[in-house]
Write a structure and sequence with these properties.
Blueprint: E1 2-6, E2 9-12, E3 17-24, E4 32-38, E5 45-50, E6 57-59, E7 67-72, E8 77-82, E9 91-98, E10 112-113, E11 117-122
Parallel strand pairs: 2-11
Antiparallel strand pairs: 1-3, 3-8, 4-5, 4-9, 5-6, 7-8, 9-10, 9-11
Length: about 120
């Protein structure tokens, strides 16, 4: 199984980025997918989650209304549209896949992880 994120970069505060994550070697539509992030010295935290069919989403309070998670099962890809970015959104962003997720922002719920893509927001 391979999970690979892309789309990170440097952006000014108030700007937008779209992250993508492609997974191979698994039956994509059987997995819940989430985005996590981690900045230096902090715990990895859940950002957003989407269920297998894309009919239900969850967000961290800190990104609610600014970030949107979506998925395209035909392309084995999940996206994170990030708008109105803030300096505090700066982090390494990780994609995670789990066949069954109870507590969506609990890292232990996920089986497969990508290597991460860096997002840096400048003031």
């Amino acid at each position: 199984v391979q999970v690979m994120e892309s789309g990170g970069g440097l952006v000014q505060a108030g700007g937008s980025l779209r992250l993508s994550c492609t997974a191979s070697g698994l039956i994509f539509e059987n997995y819940h997918l989430s985005w996590f992030r981690q900045s230096p010295g902090k715990e990895r935290e859940g950002v957003a989650c989407i269920d297998r069919r894309g009919s239900s989403t969850r967000y961290a309070d800190s990104v609610q209304g600014r970030f949107t998670i979506s998925r395209d099962n035909a392309k084995n890809t999940v996206y994170l549209q990030m708008n109105s970015l803030k300096v505090e959104d700066t982090a390494m962003y990780y994609c995670a896949a789990g066949p069954w997720v109870g507590v969506w922002d609990r890292k232990e719920e996920y089986t497969y992880w990508g290597q991460g893509t860096q997002v840096t927001v400048s003031s």
